[in-house]
Amino acid sequence: MADDRVRRAEELLEERLATRRNGEDRDAPGEAESDKLGDERVEELTRDLQRVAADFANYRRRNEAERADFARFAKADLITRLLEVLDDYDRSLGTVPEDLRTQPWVEGMWHVERKLRDILASEGLEPLDPVGEAFDPHIHEAIAHVESDAPDGTVVEEIRKGYRLHDRVIRPALVTVAKQKE
Amino acid sequence: MPKVIGIDLGTTNSAVAYMEAGEPTIIPNAEGGRVTPSVVAHTKTGERLVGQVAKRQAITNPENTVYSIKRLMGRRFTDPEVQRTIGMVSYKIREASHGGVEIELADGKKLAPPQISAMILQKLRTDAEAFLGEKVTQAVITVPAYFDDSQRQATKDAGQIAGLEVLRIINEPTAASLAYGLDKKKDELVAVYDLGGGTFDISVLQLGEGVFEVKATNGDTHLGGDDFDQRVIEWLTEEFKRDQGIDLKNDRMALQRLKEAAEKAKIELSSTQQTEINLPFITADQSGPKHMVITLTRSKLEQLTGELVERTVGPVRQALADAGVGPEKIDEVILVGGMTRMPVVVETVRKIFGKEPHKGINPDEVVALGAAVQGGVLKGEVKDVLLLDVTPLSLGIETLGGIATKLIERNTTIPTSKSQVFTTAADGQTQVEIHVVQGEREMAGDNKSLARFILDGIPPAPRGIPQVEVSFDIDANGIVNVKARDKATSREQHVTITATSGLLKDEVERLVKEAQAHADEDKRTRERIETRNEADGFAYSIEKTIRDNADKIPADVKTDVEGKITAVREALKTEDTEKIREALNDLRQAANKIGEVMYQAEQQKQQAEAPQEGQPAGTAAGQPEGEKKDDTIEGEFTEKPS
Questions:
Q1: Do B423 and B463 contact (CB within 8 A), yes or no?
Q2: What residues in B contact A95, CB-CB < 8 Å?
Q3: A178 forms bridges with which residues in the sheet?
Q4: Catalytic one among B172, B201, B229, B586?
Q5: Nearest residue, CB atoms, A174 vs list B54, B256, B385
Q6: CATH code of the domain in which A154 resides
Q7: Across the interface, which of B59, B133, B284 has its CB nearest the CB of A145?
Q8: How confident is the model at residue B442 (pLDDT cuts 50, 70, 90)?
Q9: Which structural domain, as residue segments, surrounds residue A155?
Q10: What tens digit of pLDDT does each residue of B470-502 get?
C-alpha cells in the first residue's frame, strides 16, 4: 500500500508537469495572470510531493537496512545479558582450587561451561584477545592505568572479557593499560 | 529540502532528532546509541574521540578528556560554578583573556568551551548525515531556561563552529512542552521537572498564543542519577562489610561490578517491587571466594535515596513562589530526565502539584524531540498541505446477518484504498446490495449508514460462487468512493460519499466511546450471527454433497445426516446460539461418516485395481467447503429479496 502511495505521488507529479507544459503551449492572453498564480501553486505542490516521495524513499531504504540488521542482531540483546553468566564462569572455574581440579564433579562443570560457550560461538559470539595489543577505546574500556614494563599504551591485563558478535563488538573488554615508569 | 535537526546538548549526554513524516524521531549515533555521552578526548596520536569511545579511555588520558563542558559555557572564570567545576574535573581549566574560560590540554593546546561543544555537535551532525543519507546544515539547539545571553551566544557559536546554521536556541523546558504538543493549547501555566544524570532543573512557563514565556526557574546543578547510584553502592558495600568483614571500596573491579549492578537494580525497581543483586565471586580471602547476593526492595531504594528526592522539593516551591503562583494554578506538569522514571519521583511531583504529570515520551529524549518539532515549524514543514489526515471512524459494508465488515480501519492515514472480494448468500442470487456503514460497532445497524446501492446482473450461480470485488477509495479530502464489480461480467456500480467529513470531533469521540462500551455485547452478537451463518452454510454444503454423491452414500448414513440437517434448520429458527452450535456439531460428526464411507469406497476401488499398494484407512474429510483456497473471504452479502 505504501508503494502505491509513492507511485501515486509520482503519477500526480507527472500529471502536473504535463498540465504545466500544456499551459505553456497554450499561452492565451488574459489567462497569463492566473496561469502565473497557478504555476506558483503547482511548483509549491510539486516540491511538497517531491519531498514526501523522497522522505518515503529514504524511510524505506532505512527501514530495509534496519530490518536486515535486526535479523542479524535480534539475538544480541539476550546474548549480551548472558555475558554476565560467562563472566561468572570465568571467575569461578578460573579459580578452582588445585586439590579440586581433578575431581570428576568439577570436570563436569567445565563441560557444562564449554557447552554454553559452544552454543554462543555457533551464534557468532567470539571473545576478544586484547592482552599485548595497543589500547583501542573502540573495543577496550580502560579501568586502570598502571606502571608497567610493557610498552606504553598497551593492554596489560584483561579484567573482564570483551566479545564480538559477528563483526560488532557487543561489549568492550575491561582492561588495564600500561603507563611508562617514571 | 535539507532537514533541520533538533539537538539536546546536555551536561552528561546529548541527543539529536529530526522530523520524519510529521513525527519527531531520535537519530541513533554511529554506535547505535540513542544518546551520546557529552565527552570529548584528544589522544596522544592526535585523534579526536567523542562520546562513548572517549569515555572508555578517560582513565588513561585524564588531562585530555573533557566532560561537563556545559558547566563552563559562556561563563567568566570567576563564576562560582566554574570554580566548583575546577575542583571536580581531571582536565585543566584556565582563565582566558578578557576573563573567560579555556581548557588547556596536556600538549599545551588551548580550547574555548564552545570549541569543545562544537566537537560534540560535529559528531551528532556527522552521525545524523550518515543516518539520513543527506547533508545537514541547520539545527535547533536547546539550553537550560536559566542560560543568560552570553551562555546562549556561546552555544550558538559552538553550532557555527560545527558547521551548523543555528536557526534558533530554545529553552529545554519549552522543547519538552513542544514534544507534548502543548503549544496547541492556550493560556496555560506549565511546570517542567527535569531530573537528569547530573543536574536538576525546575521551570515554570506561561503559555500564550503558542509562545512560551519563562516565569521562573530554579534547581540544583549538582543533583542527579549518579548520586542515586552512589547511594546504592554505598549501601551494598556496607552490607557486604557487615556480613563478610571485607571492604570493597578499594577493589576497582568489584566497584565496577557494583556500579553496573546498582544502576541495573535502580532501573529494574521502577517496574518491580524487588530485585536481586547477584554478584558471585565478588572477591576472595584466605578462606575462599566470597559472593554478594542481596535483595533490594523498592522501599529500601526509596529509603536510601529519599533525601535526594526531597532535595528537589525546595527548588520547586521556590520557583512557584518566584512565579507568584500556587501549585494548584499549574495546568500541566511535564517530567524530563531519566530519573523521573522512578515511581517515588513521580509520586513526589504529583503530591506537590496535586495532579498527574505528563509522561509517555521517553524522558531522556523528550527535549531533543521537542527541538526537532521546533525545527519542523521553522522550516514550515508542519504545514497544512502536508498534514495527512486520518479516517476518524472505520468504514465497511454490511454482510450476511447484519454484520459490519470493516474494510478501512479507523485512524488509517488517507488518501488510501482497499478492496476485498465477497460472494452471494443464496443460490441463483442475481444482485447484491452494498450497504456502506461507518463506525466501530460490530453490527451494521448500530453504525451510521452512509449509502446503499445495488449491483445487479450477476449470472445465476450457486451461493458462494460469484465473486464481487468491493473497493473503497478515500481521497485526501475524505471523499469516499465505493465500487462493486462482478468479476465474471465486469459489471460495476459505484457511489461517492462526500458527507463523511461532516462528523464533528465530539461525535467521533462519542461513537468510539459507544463502541467501547458495547464491545462485549457486540462481540456476543457477532458470534451469534457467525454461528448462524456457519451452521446455515455447512448444512447447505452437506446437502449439496449428498445430492452430488447420492449413489455412493449408504442409505443409513444418508438418513442420519439428513436428520441432523433438519435439526440444524430447526435450531436456526430459534435464537438459541447454544442449540445451533450443538446441532452444528452433531451434523459435523454425522457428516464425517460421509467422508469416511466415500474414502473407503475409493480405497477399495484402488486396492482392487492395484492391490500391492495398500493405503492406511483415511478418516479425514468431514468439513467440505468451509475455507476455500481462493481469495473469496467468508462473509456474504445480505440476501436481497428479488
A1: yes
A2: 281, 284, 289
A3: A146
A4: B172
A5: B256
A6: 2.30.22.10
A7: B59
A8: confident
A9: 125-182
A10: 999 888 777 889 999 998 888 898 888 875 444
